[in-house]
């Protein structure tokens, strides 16, 4: 054998064992070969969102600071594999809408990893959520100090009136029109993502839950639709005995919706199969409210009652009769009390468990709006042209504001401001504490603004009788668009204690 061949064979025999030996040493020493990485339990959510952070690829048994943007929120200790699991932080209350960054950084060096988190609030149902308060508790852009600077962001034209209340979910606005269509519009521009044509006018307000849009259609269609939120493709539909004006409420996989046929339906949200129904002697054309296992719904003429039903079985718990020959409208529920307006010119407050009357407040005309409830005050409107604020516990008037027309729009509350439309064609922003005028916008409608507003991410969305959907903002991009922070600029908080439970070494 040539000397050169022998040398190659010797080198090969030495090289291969050394390679395996090196790999074995790295494994035994617990040194991670991969760069640090983190995973978040959710990619988006409103301010105050609870975020669980897990990491791997860090040094074993070292302290890791977890930052939201540049604020050090938690300190964890990695285990023997250089991992940590489910460290909990919260998005700050003041985090503006847009992209923010979560950073996990080893203490005393620049070794770390980052992931984006989108701060985003969804107004997913007529009531904001199914409980029925029409309150957005997360708004932090619009306030009594800033709402006076609202300006038109965009408007989108339809073929007929828009009395439907918009839903705003994951950057898309969903709204119905009397032109028989459901529209999905980009929240930032108002451009059409998709539209779906039903067989009847759409006065119902869409609800958007887990990627599905639920919305009712009027005569002659008389159906509830479930549409794919991304594409508008029909998933299923359920035909009732008459028009579906009612705004659906979705809780725990069940859709609750009323019909002009006088029946409240509970449907499986995934399949549309009927779970139960309860038939009244009147018309149900407003949104039900679902709270603590019960569903509350008003029946109009000739029944004129508010009903409380078991949400699982549909069993009647109690009913309350308002004024004779006048109907009950859309209820809201908060702190064990049901608040509901009536065409007998009253707002009623009832014990949610028993239906006992707690108090009533008299206005000058029909109360067809659904109340908003916030900070111990009930906000509602009346056909007497007024918006009212009433003490939620006592039923005494806090303030009233007179518009130029009858008010059937249901107020929305967000960060100290009440937003509402009026029959005079205007959209108003009022100081929630004093009732003082902050801002208004005149639409082109001689038919009034009877849509109910949704307020999310610093934008007010509402429909109008002038065949338009409107979006109002502060006239500039309020979204957070900063770059991921440089590791070297992040400063640990040395007063933080190690989060519990500490990852156990392996």
How does this model look, in words?
The chain is mainly β and 506 residues long. It has three domains: 1-31; 37-120, Sandwich (Immunoglobulin-like), CATH 2.60.40.1930; 135-473, 7 Propeller (Methylamine Dehydrogenase, Chain H). The strands form ten sheets. A five-stranded mixed beta sheet has the order 2-8-7-4-5, with no helix packed on it. A five-stranded mixed beta sheet has the order 9-35-36-37-38, with no helix packed on it. Strand 16 and strand 17 form a beta hairpin. The longest helix has 27 residues, at 3-29. It is globular. It starts with a helix and ends in a 33-residue tail after the last strand.
List keywords for this structure.
globular; Methylamine Dehydrogenase, Chain H; 506 residues; 3 domains; mainly beta; single chain; five-stranded mixed beta sheet
Write a short abstract of this structure.
By secondary structure, the chain is mainly beta.
Percent helix, as a range, is under 10%
Looking at the chains present, what oligomeric state does this protein adopt? single chain
CATH class of the largest domain: Mainly Beta
What is the CA–CA distance across the termini? 51 Å
Strand content: 35-45%
Counted beta strands: 41
Classification by helices and strands: mainly beta
- For this structure, what is the CATH homologous superfamily of the largest domain? YVTN repeat-like/Quinoprotein amine dehydrogenase
Largest sheet: spatial strand order:
2-8-7-4-5
How many structural domains are formed by the residues? 3
Stretches where pLDDT is under 50 for at least 5 consecutive residues are 1-32
CATH topology of the largest domain: Methylamine Dehydrogenase, Chain H
CATH architecture of the largest domain: 7 Propeller
Radius of gyration from the CA trace?
Answer: 28 Å
Based on CA inertia axes, which overall geometry fits?
A: globular
Largest sheet properties: 5 strands, mixed
**DSSP summary: helix tally:** 1
Q: Output mean pLDDT.
A: 91
């Amino acid at each position: 054998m040539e000397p050169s061949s022998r040398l190659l064979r010797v080198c090969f025999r030495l090289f291969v064992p050394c390679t395996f030996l090196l790999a074995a040493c790295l494994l035994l020493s617990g040194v991670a070969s991969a760069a640090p990485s983190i995973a978040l339990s959710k990619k988006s959510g409103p301010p105050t969102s609870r975020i669980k952070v897990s990491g791997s690829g860090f040094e074993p048994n070292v302290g890791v600071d977890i930052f939201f943007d540049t604020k050090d929120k938690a300190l964890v200790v990695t285990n023997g594999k250089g991992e940590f699991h489910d460290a909990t932080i919260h998005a700050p209350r003041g985090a503006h809408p847009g992209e923010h960054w979560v950073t996990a950084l080893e203490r005393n060096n620049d070794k770390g990893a980052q992931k984006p988190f989108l701060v985003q609030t969804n107004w997913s149902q007529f009531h904001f959520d199914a409980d029925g308060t029409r309150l957005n508790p997360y708004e932090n852009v619009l306030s009594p100090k800033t709402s006076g600077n609202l300006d038109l962001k965009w408007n989108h034209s339809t073929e007929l009136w828009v009395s439907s209340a918009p839903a705003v979910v994951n950057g898309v606005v969903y709204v119905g029109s009397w032109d028989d269509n459901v529209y999905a519009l980009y929240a930032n521009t108002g451009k059409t993502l998709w539209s779906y044509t039903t067989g009847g006018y759409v006065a119902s307000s869409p609800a958007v839950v887990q990627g599905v849009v639920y919305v009712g259609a009027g005569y002659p269609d008389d159906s509830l639709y479930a549409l794919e939120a991304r594409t508008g493709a029909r998933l299923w539909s359920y035909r009732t005995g008459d028009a579906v004006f009612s705004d659906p409420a979705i809780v725990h996989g069940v859709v609750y919706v009323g019909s002009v046929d006088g029946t409240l339906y509970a449907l499986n949200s995934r399949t549309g199969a009927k779970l139960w129904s309860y038939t009244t002697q009147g018309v149900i054309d407003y949104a039900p409210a679902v709270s603590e296992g019960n569903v509350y719904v008003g029946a109009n003429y000739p029944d004129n009652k508010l009903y409380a039903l078991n949400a699982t079985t549909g069993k009647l718990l109690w009913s309350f009769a308002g004024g004779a020959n006048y109907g009950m409208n859309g209820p809201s529920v908060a702190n064990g009390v049901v608040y509901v307006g009536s065409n007998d010119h009253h707002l009623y407050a009832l014990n949610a468990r028993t239906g006992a009357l707690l108090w009533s407040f008299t206005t000058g005309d029909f109360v067809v709006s659904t109340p908003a409830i916030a900070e111990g005050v009930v906000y509602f409107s009346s056909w007497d042209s007024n918006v009212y604020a009433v003490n939620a516990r006592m039923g005494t008037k806090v303030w009233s504001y007179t518009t130029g027309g009858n008010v059937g729009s249901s107020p929305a509350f967000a960060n100290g401001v009440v937003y509402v439309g009026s029959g005079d064609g205007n959209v108003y922003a009022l100081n929630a504490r004093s009732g003082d005028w902050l801002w208004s916008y005149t639409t082109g409608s001689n038919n009034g603004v009877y849509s109910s507003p949704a307020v999310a991410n610093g934008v007010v969305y509402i429909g109008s009788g002038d065949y338009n959907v409107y979006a109002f903002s502060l006239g500039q991009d309020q979204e957070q668009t900063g770059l991921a922070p440089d590791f070297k600029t992040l400063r640990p908080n040395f007063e933080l204690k190690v989060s519990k439970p500490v990852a156990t070494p392996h």
